[in-house]
Amino acid sequence: MLNAVPFRYEELYGGLANCHGLIRLDGKDLSLEFQVEDSIVGVLKSGVKQARIPIQELSWIRLEQSWFGLVNKLAIQAGRLEVVQDVPGMNQGRMVLGIARRDRPAAERLVAELMLPDRA
Predict the structure, then answer these.
(1) Contact (Cβ atoms closer than 8 angstroms) between residue 69 and residue 62
(2) What are the tens digits of pLDDT across the range 41-95?
(3) Looking at the domain that runs over 5-114, which CATH code has it been given?
(4) Burial class of residue 73 (count of CB atoms within 10 Å of its CB; 0-12, 13-18, 19+)
(5) Where are the domains of the chain?
(6) In sequence order, what are the residues at sequence separation of 6 or more whose Cβ sits closer than 8 angstroms to the Cβ of residue 102?
(7) Residue 111 is inside which H or E element, if any?
(8) In this predicted model, what pLDDT tens digit does every residue of 1-29 receive, in sequence order?
């Protein structure tokens, strides 16, 4: 069974869109499948898109927690912009994915599976 972790980005493109999707380890790649929708009406949705990031291109990944464990974020830093250019919300090779509290155990397993050093 694949360890797929649901995520969300809120307030993309100046608050005009939101993004939600799944992230999982897929062989030697970190795979993100996502869909972008407008945040005003919620009717306009993109098709499902996919980005694959080779694990060797990742600098670090960590699960961050704030507000007494109520807010969880999966922070990912790529070593090159080119490998994350198609991921919405990416800034300077960094992505910060919102993780629901109920999905935190799956996110912890994903981080453990990758076993990347935390260099931040």
Answers:
(1) no
(2) 766 778 899 999 999 999 999 999 876 667 899 999 999 999 998 888 888 999 9
(3) 2.30.29
(4) middle
(5) 5-114
(6) none
(7) helix 104-114
(8) 568 999 998 777 777 888 899 999 998 99
